[in-house]
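Quick one: structure for this chain?
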Amino acid sequence: MREGEEMQDSIDILKERYLTNIKENPDLYIGIELEFPIVNLQGGATDTRVTKELLVRLNSDYGFIVERRDSEGNPIQLKASDSEDRILFEVSYNILEFAFEKAKIIQEVEIRFNHYLDIIQQILRKDHHELQGHGLHPFWKENDNQPVKYPRYQMLMQYLALSEKIGGDFFHRHPDYGSYICGSQVQLDVSRGNFIQVINAFNQIEAAKAYLFANSELITEDFRTKIARDRFWEESMHGLLVENVGVNPYDFKDEEDFFNYLNNTAIFNAEREGDTYYFPPIAAGEYLKQGQIKGYNLSGKESLVSPSVDDFHYHRSYQYQDLTTRGTIEFRSTCAQPLNRTFAPAAFHLGLLVNLEETEAYLKACEFFRLEGRDYKHLRRQYSKNKLTQNEEKNIQKFSYDLLQLAIKGLQKRKMHEEKYLISLY
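Got it. Here's what it folds into:
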């Protein structure tokens, strides 16, 4: 603790961080973030000169505003001139992210996405590159997987590389995975009254989401899964504290139960005098009890860091149903989808949220859990395997089909024709 700071209760700090912006009766907005690999059409490594030039061109010829530059002056985050949409590099110069301003209906986002995509593909194809719909960069092995030269990304990659220092069988051999995995995330507004129900319901259906949206198979490895990103997250520094990442092992009884669980998630970085430090993960509940923590800055220099309440500002768990500081739940277990199915995950989550009561009633009594039990973590793993048995295939198809029907019903209630985005899943 820094001098003069009272020992505050970590759960109170977490509650203040995550509950402040939750509204009692929020309007339902949709926040969509999409990540895509930039792929060299001639095979082999993505040419990062081409990708950096893309953002320069979007700025100079199409009026996008530069919001962030890397340490060499290259634009790395742009903002659309007529909206709050952002286009940025995600972790490496090989991955492009679209972060859309919140919208009332999915079509609003789709129209803007198609507009950006047309421009971007035109620019990239002149240099034999394009964006493609994969959850894993197809040439991850050949690529230059260094982080974007920006403190947040450099810190993240150096932190993940601590697994090589620590060693042991727990970790996979790909600490640089952040520079080649791509996700499709959606954020939806929740209320103080329903956020626990939402987290529980969507946590229960991770097996179906694995089945419907798997798109990151690692062909060359013994991972034996269609969702390499699960293993990448869980068997890395992020997964060293098991509560910090992935599927929750059980249903939360109430808010207290949830925050007790969140209290076991990790703090692993801090800022001091403009310098970024990272250190092996410490559970939020233990953090302020530390005397001094041995941390590393971006040039690898070791320093002692005294924990401070302010460091909770950098707390971020990587659970698949993630309560954010914006009064939303971010659903983050879905791989980037083929381009013709880009908005299927958002529609699926939105439909089920709108139809939450019926979804909960279904999940309480459904046959899938009677047959398979309720080890949610295990079920996610089981149903993202490369090969399912005939029986598994039958069980998960029925479960997924029922959930699709519930999602369609929710979207039909909205009368916005958003159910069209789910047709591709049949």
